[in-house]
Specification:
two-stranded antiparallel ribbon, 5 helices, 189 residues, 8-stranded mixed sheet, alpha/beta
Amino acid sequence: MNKNELRKSLRAARKAHVDALPENLRALMFHRPPAPLLAHVPQDAVIGLYHAAPFEAPAAAYARFFRDAGHTIALPHFTARTAPMRFRHHTDPYAQDDLEVGPFGILQPSHKADALVPDVLFVPLVGFTATRDRLGQGGGHYDRWLAEHPPALAVGLGWDVQLCAALPIEAHDQRLAAIITPTRIYGLN
């Protein structure tokens, strides 16, 4: 399968998996970062997260957790669909009053929010391997950002159903330090 066919198949599997989860169980998953991961997060790190699209692994509880632990939170910000991804300060992970709809239809900080460069970055994914290769949405935004701004730690969040035996990896694809699912941690050796 090429990347686009693989994305279509993985998105369908992810949707079916999430749809099958009871609502109360979904709320408990990705509620708190696992302790082995927290041991790798510097105390004063700026934490980059994402506002999850439907069926992506949710990151909102992580934003609240890290904010309560004293970290500064940053979310992706786009000025246009073709513009480079930047990160801006997300000040309110509880009410999300500081967010507005961006060009991809996903909530993002206002263009007036302070620009930040995360030290630790959590990324969404469509698919992944046990060796921490990642298949994203196809725009290359995270791969370009990771190549230009290597963070202290880059972590994918995903559902177990997104695990692939192999992915068609290209030279520009960035491997993650870890991937967290509801049942496993890949990486962090």
